[in-house]
UniProtKB/TrEMBL annotation:
Keywords: ATP-binding, Nucleotide-binding, Transport
Protein name (database record): Peptide ABC transporter substrate-binding protein
Domain ABC transporter: 8-259
Native source species: Faecalitalea cylindroides
Family of the protein in this entry: Belongs to the ABC transporter superfamily.
Amino acid sequence: MAEKNVILEVKNLKKYFPLKKGKYREGDPCVKAVDGISFKLYEGETLGLVGESGCGKSTLGRTIIQLYEPTEGEVIFKGEDVTKKSRKEMRKLREDMQFIFQDPYSSLNPRMNVFNTLAEPLLAHGIYKRGPELEAYIKDLMDKCGLPSYYCYRYPHQFSGGQRQRIGIARSLALSPSFIICDEPVSALDVSIQSQIINLMKDMQEEKNISYIFISHDLSVVKHISDRVGVMYLGSMVELADKNEIYANPQHPYTKALIGAIPIPDPSKRKEMQVIQGEIPSNVNTPSGCKFHPRCPFAKDICKQKVPEVKEVKPNHFVQCHFGGEF
């Protein structure tokens, strides 16, 4: 990974939602959806993000692409800090950074057929004008995404869930971006359709050298598609490492419990599940010290008092835990 170029660098990114109307001011009661996350993404790499519902995965993705205005921190994309860009500058930059939404039905305009859905970004950015060239490009894009080109004048309600997700992927690829955030793109699909969509995304990545941030609850899917995996808990990145390393040798108690809960697809084998005790704390009143300490079976006094620093326990294996590397 060292020889690859960094396409995206996130530095101490925070996104707080104030409970009162208006902009957030320091000290105001707020939901700390993303609370000081830092990482790098390399060209042609897939970084998987996992964690329980409400941990801030989707908010992180939307804040990186500036659908949400960050409270604090930097997002460096190809050497430029996008948090300092105006709306007009971001519009231009979005040719190169795209988003695949979780629900393909609600993210597609029911009044626009597939042709107009895929043509809209191309026309808006002035890449094509209406005519035979645009039509040929869109039909070729549909073929690449596994959609028959004669479907181009159909509407979203005329497609299955898997086909609608392919339309969403085709729309994100229309401008030939180098970076795509995928927010649970296969969570609502059948297993057979999931594999088709994931294989399509991997093929497109190899062909165009696209970098993905892949957000999902499904750790098996994340392992299949990702190069590295980041584990989030209450707005923080508690562990980040190569996928084989993190699945074979997790160093944070929360990661251990998540991986221990992955079912084995073999009824003859039994596996002892590691159950995490207690409820997820509130994102408004987060626990002092380590956020995971109320549920951690290894918690000690220091965990309740001091926020753990991120440690590199092995080369490129980062853990936010006082005892990371000792489990």
